[in-house]
Design brief:
It is a single chain. With 499 residues, this protein is of the alpha/beta class. It has a domain at 245-408: Glycogen Phosphorylase B (Rossmann fold, 3-Layer(aba) Sandwich). 38% of the residues lie in helices and 12% in strands. It contains 18 helices and 13 strands. The chain has helices at 8-13, 21-35, 58-76, 81-90, 115-121, 133-136, 153-163, 175-178, 187-201, 210-222, 267-281, 299-307, 323-332, 347-354, 365-371, 383-394, 399-408, 416-431; strands at residues 3-6, 43-49, 52-57, 141-144, 166-171, 204-207, 230-232, 254-258, 287-291, 315-318, 335-338, 359-362, 376-378. The strands form 2 sheets. The chain has a 7-stranded mixed β-sheet, sandwiched between helices. Strands 10-9-8-11-12-13 form a 6-stranded parallel β-sheet, sandwiched between helices. α2 crosses α3, α3 packs antiparallel against α5 (115-121) and α11 packs across α16. The chain is globular. The two termini are 37 Å apart. GO terms for molecular function: glycosyltransferase activity.
Length: 499
């Protein structure tokens, strides 16, 4: 059985020097499928470009994928020595503590160029005749892990039916539907169409957290649509987050917050908390480093950062920071702060936990699903509460911080190998012939429950009178719910205390 990964987003974003979180996920899937022996001679790729569907063989995609990975990794390091020097001076570090971590950044002209690999990808030599392509991928498992193209329900249905594909979708979040005030006008309507496409066509849905699954299930109920078979598989933290980091010299207490500067990330509560701390403690107040690019509708936050004189020596904005430097700064910080109003997952939080760095974050179910009880949870609008906890964690003898460190020492965060051990089993289950339920992989155990399914009528179609949906596991639109068993699989998930 072939597996076809949709790489439309990777192609569309290949000219960008900085990847988003979803870009990283699609790249991780492509590299896993290309590098795993289990998928040798079984994996192919698809993309929709200029209203046409293009199919690619693994050999043609491998060079593009590796070039894109090197380009994004290389561009990530394009922080200047001047920017690093600003952080050193802000923290009163000796010159070179940060700038000497890695060799000086090569010039921009040396960034790996993806254009040659794109030309080879679309070369007639690598593209089989269009008439052969449908046969080559007929009946394959189709993976879409980026929401890309799901806004066109008719287009997706045509591709699924034309080639007999069995779709598996990864749903990242439903924030545009649950919190439309934090997205651009029109995004809520677009995301609703995407989620309807998922519900109408999925053989299996992967959710990054139980919170995302609950939100999708609630949307399905409101829309009177059946909930497809589903599994929760947390996204992975890169292995680099967890290696032994060199400790910096003792410095003035400081905290980090990581994330795009936009309303949903709630930087405003931190700035007001820091104003309180500076007024109370003066020069002894801890410092804050804001790591993240400027997003949209952030004028009030930027005004405070740039114009508030009281915060001038205590708050530093850093638009970009390579992983190597971010890890070192995280490791030395008194804590990493995440005051978000809404999150679908929150990968930087789990990167901090992988480094065993205390976390103070909003009390969101998405965080609790993966992080468990280790972090310090606060109401995102409780500015004084944030100020009190930050002041406490800044003290060298903080009992609360020491308690969290003990919990973090026993908490295991998800890695990509954990994620893909579940996904590989899901692909095998969906690939099974109709009516056949395959035994799951030993690395994951499904807990199956059967319920009567609603009749599903896809948009623009009429259902036959009396048509009912099958309750067989791995059949489309069943309400079978696949989840990791609490017993043997519990050690594979963060937030659970174990060896």
């Amino acid at each position: 059985m072939k597996v076809v990964l949709d790489i439309t987003r990777m192609l569309r974003r290949s000219s960008q020097s900085t990847p988003t979180g979803i870009d990283r996920v699609e790249l991780a899937y492509a590299r896993h499928l290309l590098g795993s022996r289990a998928y040798k001679d079984r994996v192919a790729f698809v993309a929709r470009v200029r209203a046409s569907t293009w199919y690619f063989d693994a050999d043609a995609v491998a060079g593009f994928t590796e070039t894109l990975k090197r380009r994004w990794k290389h561009a990530e390091g394009r922080v200047t020595r001047r920017e690093l020097g600003n952080i050193e001076r802000f923290l009163d570090l000796a010159p070179g503590v940060l700038t000497d971590i890695e060799p000086e950044t090569p010039p921009r002209a040396t960034l790996p160029d993806v254009l040659p690999t794109l030309k080879r990808l679309f070369s007639p030599v690598n593209l089989l005749p269009r008439l052969l392509r449908p046969r080559n991928s007929q009946g394959a498992v189709y993976l879409n892990v980026s929401h890309e193209g799901l806004g066109s329900g008719n287009g997706m249905r045509a591709m699924m039916r034309g080639h007999g594909l069995k779709p598996i979708y990864l749903v990242h979040d439903l924030i545009p539907l649950t919190h439309p005030e934090y997205v651009r006008p029109g995004d809520a309507e677009k995301h609703e169409t995407r989620m309807r496409t998922v519900l109408a066509s999925a053989e299996m849905v992967i959710c990054n957290s139980h919170h995302t699954l609950d939100q999708l299930s609630a949307f399905a109920a409101r829309s009177d649509m059946a909930m497809p078979a589903n599994v929760v598989s947390p996204l992975g933290v890169e292995n680099e987050f967890g290696v032994q980091e060199l400790a910096m010299p003792e410095v003035h207490p400081y905290f980090l917050t990581v994330g795009t500067i936009e309303p949903r990330k709630n930087h405003l509560v931190l700035l007001h908390a820091w104003r309180v701390l500076v007024e109370k403690l003066g020069p002894k107040a801890p410092k804050l480093i804001i790591v993240g690019r400027r997003g949209w509708e952030n004028e009030n936050v930027i005004d405070i950062i740039e114009r508030c004189r009281n915060l001038g020596g205590h708050v530093l904005e850093c638009n970009r920071l390579p992983d190597a430097h971010l890890r070192r700064l995280m490791k030395q910080a008194r804590g990493v702060l995440f005051p978000s109003f809404a999150e679908g997952y929150g990968l930087p939080l789990f990167e901090a936990m992988a480094l065993r760095v205390p976390v103070i974050c909003s009390d969101l179910q998405a965080f609790r699903d993966i992080a468990g009880e280790a972090p310090c949870y606060l109401d995102p609008i409780d500015g004084l509460g944030w100020a009190r906890v930050i002041e406490d964690y800044a003290r060298p003898d903080s009992a609360a911080r020491d308690s969290q460190l003990r919990l973090l020492a026993q908490t295991r965060v998800p890695r990509w190998k954990d994620h893909f051990s579940i996904i590989d089993g899901i692909i095998d289950a969906v690939a099974a012939p109709a009516g056949e339920v395959r035994a799951p992989s030993p690395s994951w155990q499904p807990a199956i429950s059967f319920e009567r399914s609603k009749e599903l009528i896809a948009a623009g179609e009429l259902a036959d009178a009396g048509r009912a949906l099958s309750l067989v596991a791995a059949q489309p639109h069943s309400s079978t719910r696949w989840s990791v068993a609490e017993s043997s699989a519990s050690s594979s998930y963060p937030g659970r205390i174990g060896a």
